[in-house]
Amino acid sequence: MSTASGLIEIPARRGKAARLSRGQSVRVVNTHGHQVVDTWAFSADDIHECMSMEATRATRTKLCLEVGDAYVSNHRRAMLTVLEDSSPGRHDTLMAACDRHRYHLLGYEGHHDNCTDNLASALSELGLAAPKTPSPLNLFMNIPWTLSGGLGFEPPLCKPGDHVLLRAEMDLIVAFSACPQDMLPINGEMMRTVEAHFEIV
Fold first, then answer.
1. What is the pTM of this model?
2. Cα gap 98→160, rounded to integer Å
3. Given pLDDT bands bounded at 50, 70 and 90, which one contains residue 52?
4. Which of 48, 71, 119, 196 is most buried per CB count within 10 Å?
5. Cα 19 from Cα 30, distance rounded (Å)
6. What is the tens place of the pLDDT at every residue in 168-201?
7. Sign of torsion, CA 128 129 131 134?
8. 190: helix, coil or strand?
């Protein structure tokens, strides 16, 4: 769904993908202030080349990137550069995309919407399929860490309308999932998932 302002909806608990030309930017908006948005990027020329959290951490020697930093691919090439971030800047580069196995481990029986399936369905709308599910950039996800190596799952720190603006450094396929996690407070203390939006500029 597109709005008159050019914003494209990432439906609650669902995914959406789009093509992004080199030099274009995508603005990802946390519409309600408490929704995590799993984010992926793939080279438009070779879907096997994808944005890599592991390679980015090694290249930038940071867990959270800042304005001016670029997320890199599994081939160590710049893919998306952070141009703006109106949020407190807390994003996660550690956690895997949720999948059916994750929810089973949390005690959920039966099917639960998940980011892995959302990526697959979003890409399929463009006639594409990823060879695997890369570890995502979890925009707005608040995973505090301690010096002893502990990790936590906490509500986002942002406010409604906070956004991140990312510039494509090559022709890309970008994909997003409004994470359906409702068994941990990563989408707010009420554990309610909602829609988010993005805009290509």
1. 0.95
2. 24
3. very high
4. 196
5. 20
6. 999 999 999 999 999 999 999 888 899 999 999 9
7. positive
8. coil
The C-alpha atoms of residue 117 and residue 113 are separated, in whole angstroms, by 7
Q: Tokens at residue 33, please? A: 């202030």
162-168, strands of its sheet edge to edge = 8-10, 196-200, 25-30, 162-168, 78-85, 70-72
Which residue bears the tokens 């709005």? 3
Tell me how many degrees the CA angle 187-188-191 measures, rounded to the nearest 5: 75
The phi, psi pair for 37, rounded to 5°, reads: -125, 105
What phi and psi, each to the nearest 5 degrees, are found at residue 135?
-65, 130
Phi, psi at residue 55, to the nearest 5°? -65, -35
pLDDT digits (tens, 9 = 90+) for 96-138: 999 999 999 999 999 999 999 999 999 999 999 999 999 999 9
59 membership: H or E segment, kind and range: helix 53-60
Count CB atoms within 10 A of the CB of residue 127.
6
Token digits of residue 131: 């060879």
If you compute the radius of gyration of the chain from its CA atoms, what whole number of angstroms results? 16
